[in-house]
Structure formats: C-alpha cells, structure tokens
From TrEMBL:
PANTHER family assigned: CARBOXYMUCONOLACTONE DECARBOXYLASE-LIKE DOMAIN-CONTAINING PROTEIN, SI:CH211-175M2.5
Protein name as catalogued: Carboxymuconolactone decarboxylase family protein
UniProt superkingdom: Bacteria
Domain Carboxymuconolactone decarboxylase-like: 40-120
InterPro entries per UniProt: AhpD-like (IPR029032), CMD-like (IPR003779)
Short name of one Pfam family: CMD
Amino acid sequence: MALVTPLSADHDLETKELAEFFNETLGFCPNSVLTMQRRPAISKAFINLNKAVMANEGRVTSALKRMIAWVSSNATGCRYCQAHAIRAAERYGAEQEQLDNIWEYRTHSAFSEAERAALDFSLAASQVPNAVDATIKKRLYDHWDEGEIVEMLGVISLFGYLNRWNDSMGTDIEKGAVESGNKYLGKHGYEVGKHDGSVY
C-alpha cells in the first residue's frame, strides 16, 4: 500500500477533466495523480506541465519522448515510472523492435544515432551527479536543434519529479502498467517491487 492513499477520480472535478489526457496516454488515470489531488493545485499543475512537455513541436516524436522517460526512470530505479513509460511508448507507436530491445538502445540497430544521442542525454541528465558534458552536447547538436533539446530535457525533468514522487510514495501500480512492464522489461528482471501494494 502506498505511503498516501489515492483519492477517487471524482474527488476534484477539475483534476478529473484534465486527467482525461492520461486515458489516451496510458488507458487509465495514474494513481500518482489520484494521490497528488489531495492538494488539487499540485495535481492540476502537474497535468498541465505533463501536457506541455509531451506536446510535439519538433522532430522529437511522442514515442521517443516516452523512451527518454523510460531511460530516465531506469537510471533512477523507479519501477512504477519504468512501466508507465514503456506502456506509453507502446501506445504512441514505438517500433516493436525498439520496445523489445530498449535495454540495448546503445548498440541495437533499431535505434538511430539521433535516438541514441537523445537516450544517452536522458541517462546522463538523470544521474546524480549530473553527467551531461561537452561530448553529450556535441552529439545532441549533431542531430537536434535547441528547441528539440529543450523538449527532451523537459521530459527528463518531468520524470525526475515523477521518479521521486512515485518511488518515495510507493505508488500502487495499475494492472495495465504491470502488463506492459512484464511484456517488455520482464526478460531483464523487471519487478514491480514496492509498487505492488504491500510494502508500506
């Protein structure tokens, strides 16, 4: 069970209306949002930030944004966000070969050099201490413009928040996210860990 119990989706009608965004993204409203709405200003601000960060304004596709989120969540160890990110990547059209081989993005032929640069950026930016350096910058500028780099860092930063929120909260993971996590990440030892509803 999570540190704080999620509230009903009907608790705050403004949050409920904004949260319809997640029905497309994940197929359900995440328990993290249902917990955040104990302070509706937080849930509403989070959803609006999420929508802004995930909007496509350049060549950074919805699928790539979700794979960036997965790399970030994998780097920080948040099992809840790993499953959500891979599920969203699947729902937003990531290639099957990429989903099946996300762990090997650095070497697998399903990933382009531009995608590798973006995913390495996500890994470096998600580490503590931060590992973004001149080499990462050069690789990014070889493939992406400054607006696209801002979009990528928006995703990484959003998931920095989510990784801290959900890992600290021990947010109970939803069935659909478990299914996607097991399907694409299970062969590498994915487990829901503290998010199975029984830790706290």
